[in-house]
């Protein structure tokens, strides 16, 4: 049943802008889509390898800054009299560099920390995120520090017959985010269904047995961390070119908490879990804002999260799968009983 969730989401959200006239709601959907991409990338680590990254926002922020600086240009001085000057380039090039450099950061973090896993990896990721935040805050010559990088150009895509097209409208950015989210989902789905995906799940379920079968744990987890970081960097690039202004607050720990909530509430270790959790907790604040005060919103937000964790401890998607499995045997039993009854009649 759950294999139809992603195609259904794609069709529904592809049609949403056609009937949605409120730019505020469209903006909320774009931000929710960007955070959902981050949640999917985190789920690749947390859900399929069992490794919790509490510094995942670092890759999101690095992707945002790399893409913005590539498009804006910079002029910075380095030790020993060196100086690097960049006049600015294509936002699409910034997107590619953001994916590549964040993937490299994920690779380096994986190589350093996956030799000793568990709490060590959590500590390394938190420390990495804080170091990157302090660099963004204090390297004013490059990042403008708390003054923020402003006037970041919109994403530009080459369109056959039209040349380079700047995505200025909310609808254009919406479909760009939807396309990146769909590609990210397909990459994760193919990866999980492959031999490499079986190795990841094997390490999560029983590492000793997986090692005895010849699975290279460090290499497998490092590759997963690299792909996960690259996807988070892609989301950061989309965020920078859509919002068009970024500051060190992009590294706030609350973004990581939001990603973890989306993954755990939707169902970690499932493909559709981050989609369901992302849509629910991305749009819930928007739905609550017009009907109650900010203080009450957080109370309801927390109450819903607690209710999900108590009633569906494995997440929404696994709970739906269990419900479908419980109903299926009863339906099959009734279907099998009807022919038997018909054959017994004279």
UniProtKB/TrEMBL annotation:
Name under which the protein is recorded: Branched-chain amino acid ABC transporter permease
Gene Ontology CC? plasma membrane
The cellular location(s) given in this protein's UniProt record come to: Cell membrane
Pfam families in the cross-refs: BPD_transp_2 (PF02653)
Q: What is its main location?
A: membrane
How does this protein lie in the membrane? Answer: Multi-pass membrane protein
Which CDD domains does this entry report, sorted A to Z? TM_PBP1_LivM_like
Source organism phylogeny: Bacteria, Pseudomonadati, Pseudomonadota, Alphaproteobacteria, Hyphomicrobiales
Q: Which GO terms describe its molecular function?
A: branched-chain amino acid transmembrane transporter activity
**Top-rank taxon:** Bacteria
Matches recorded under InterPro entries = ABC_transp_permease (IPR001851), LivM-like (IPR043428)
Q: Which UniProt keywords apply?
A: Cell membrane, Membrane, Transmembrane, Transmembrane helix
Please tell me whether the keyword Transmembrane is annotated for this protein. Answer: yes
Q: Which organism is it from?
A: Xanthobacter autotrophicus
- Span-the-membrane segments of this chain are 29-46, 58-80, 92-110, 119-140, 174-193, 213-239, 245-264, 298-317
């Amino acid at each position: 049943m759950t294999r139809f969730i992603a195609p259904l989401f794609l069709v529904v959200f592809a049609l949403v802008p056609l009937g949605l006239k409120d730019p505020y709601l469209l903006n909320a959907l774009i931000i929710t889509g960007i955070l959902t991409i981050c949640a999917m990338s985190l789920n690749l680590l947390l859900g399929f390898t069992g490794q919790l990254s509490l510094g995942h926002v670092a890759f999101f922020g690095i992707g945002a800054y790399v893409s913005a600086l590539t498009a804006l240009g910079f002029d910075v001085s380095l030790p020993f009299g060196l100086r690097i000057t960049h006049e600015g380039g294509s936002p699409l090039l910034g997107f590619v560099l953001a994916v590549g450099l964040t993937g490299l950061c994920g690779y380096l973090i994986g190589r350093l920390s996956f030799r000793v896993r568990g709490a060590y990896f959590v500590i390394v990721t938190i420390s990495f995120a804080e170091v990157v935040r302090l660099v963004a805050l204090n390297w004013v010559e490059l990042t403008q520090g708390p003054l923020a990088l402003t006037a970041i150009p919109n994403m530009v895509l080459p369109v056959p017959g039209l040349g380079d097209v700047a995505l200025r409208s909310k609808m254009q950015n919406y479909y760009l985010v939807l396309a990146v989210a769909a590609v990210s989902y397909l990459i994760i789905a193919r990866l999980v269904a492959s031999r490499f995906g079986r190795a990841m799940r094997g390490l999560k379920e029983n590492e000793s047995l997986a090692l005895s079968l010849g699975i290279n744990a460090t290499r497998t987890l490092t590759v997963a961390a690299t792909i996960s970081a690259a996807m988070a960097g892609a989301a950061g690039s989309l965020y920078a070119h859509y919002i068009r202004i970024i500051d060190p607050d992009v590294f706030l720990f609350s973004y990581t908490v939001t990603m973890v909530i989306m993954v755990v509430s939707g169902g970690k270790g499932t493909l559709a879990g981050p989609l369901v959790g992302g849509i629910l907790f991305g749009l819930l604040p928007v739905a609550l804002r017009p009907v109650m005060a900010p203080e009450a919103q957080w109370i309801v937000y927390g109450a819903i999260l607690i209710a999900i964790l108590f009633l569906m401890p494995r997440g929404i998607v696994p709970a739906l799968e269990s419900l479908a499995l419980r109903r299926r045997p009863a339906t099959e039993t009734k279907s099998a009983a009807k022919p038997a009854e018909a054959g017994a009649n004279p």
